[in-house]
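Checked the freezer inventory, then went back to the computational side. Two predictions to log before the end of the day. The first one is the construct we discussed on Monday; recording sequence and tokens without edits.
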Amino acid sequence: MRARSTGLIAAFIAVSMAVTRAGAEETGRSLVVAPDGDDRTGTGASDRPWRTLRHAATQLRAGDDLVVRAGDYVEGDPDDRDAGVRVACVGRADAWIRIRGEDGARPTITAAAWYALRIEDSAYVAVSGLAVRTRPFKAGSFAGDLGCGIGALRSQHVRFRGNDVRGCGGGGISAIHSDHVHIVDNVVVGNAFGNPFQCSGISLYQCRDLDPSDGYRNFIIGNVCAGNENRVPHHRTAKLTDGNGIIVDDGRNTQGRGPHVAYDGATLIADNLCAGNGGRGIHVFLSDNVDVVGNTCHGNGRTLPRAAELSVARSDAVRLDRNVAQAIPGGLAAMIERIGDAVAWRDNVLDGSIVAPQSLGAGGVVADPRFLRANDDPERADFSLDPRSPAHALGAGRGPEARASTPYPSATGTRMISR
């Protein structure tokens, strides 16, 4: 039944895109949401803006550009705790639907819901320049700081860029059962502390082949992920399991009711900073075809015992190249276990214990990377490298500051690492 459901979703998106093409002459509107707007009398025009994103999201169609003016927006409906703002619309490759903070502003979206903003059953939607927060709420037997920041569900060609997501009790930015997801240049800080379902800062869970293509399909690039940690145990197992900076989780689709079909796409995790998270810095679990390149991981594993800066488990076709990983005292710089034959690593700088098969080789050098000013708080830290750092010779640990000189591919992209 789930396999049929996935097919129906893809068919719905295809039909919606065909209908959208038929009405292409009506696309490309400039729309506005503002604190002084009105959902009843507004039209979305600059001089008659809407008041809430929740209402504006119901009006969007292919090519629309929705500008959110500076201000605070408390979104949601007490009778609908699923999402404060729900976006369910289909754009096109040549007519993206864009939701963005006004230039020079960072409007704040707050919701008491499982997601402050969620894109579902959608395609070609981009969200940028927003600050996202959540508030406690009660839903059934659950109560407290449960809400996630920004999410995508059963969607393809989705981009989250330049957002600030912090203080959300659930995950920061996530995508579930989705494809072609870009999570780029976001700040994701202090999330995942109150949700019993064990969330993380940034996560891709059970990616699906909604639009198969070669090269990379998912990009997690240039983000700052700090202070995300689980504090509330799982509601069934009573254990803490996540609170990672970044996780690519169960791309093999082994969990739940199915369909149990492994994702065939490739994911690039590059130039991110993961510091002071409760779980692992970067974790690839039950997933294949993932390249982890040029990231900086420092002082993670604050809550979970034996949570490594770089972690790969029960996965294959994973490469870890030119990363810098500095563990907490007595902690793990890297843990690689129960892997396939196509996992490899090279040119990493590792400061801490290492658990990995001997057949993989050293994977780089074991040394202090010599950060200029390491700190779990990214606003107080400077993870630039001292001129004497061994990372320079390897080209390792570029982190978010390298983004200006190394833009990510805008489409599928050529794989950075040949297999």
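The second is the one RB wanted added to the comparison set:
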Amino acid sequence: MALCDYLIAADITGYDCENPPIKGAEPTGLLINRADIDTWSLLAGEQFKVKIDLVCGGPTAYEVTQSGKQPWNGTQQEMVEGTNQNTITNTVQMVVLKQDEDWAQQLFALMNGEFVAVIPNKNGTYQVYGLEAGLHCTGAVRELYNDDTLSGWQITFTEEGAAKGTLFLNNKSAFDLLKQAVVCP
């Protein structure tokens, strides 16, 4: 059977009492400048687990913490029907509560840069968004009297045309490694 046969290979069963689904995400994720990724690859024998290597001597992944009871609210994936192949559109939303003038440079970078986000799900997986085509800012809104954002910025990033769309890091160690500076040999 070839990889592109797109045949299911296991039962799709109902609710699993031993491993019930857990909705939501953990509050602290990572945001990576896509230009700071040297290479990425699928792990051997895996179709959706990836290894990310950052540029040596460059910056690390940056932590992004979302507060409240629904961190990363609005983050979603949607299949888009194509002529030859269906793809995934990934949307990542975050709220930034900072409002001082030092923040203006970061906001400008977020609105114009290209990123990859890694968000830990409540079920213990580490989902990667933007690795295939990059996350780009498609919306940034600040409402002075918005109770949900506390007058902060609601920022929306979108990745369109992701062929695999649903990618994961292997484990917490891989997540933690992205936060460390890469030493050049």
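For RB: The chain has a mean pLDDT of 89. The chain has one domain: 26-177. Let me know if you want it refolded.
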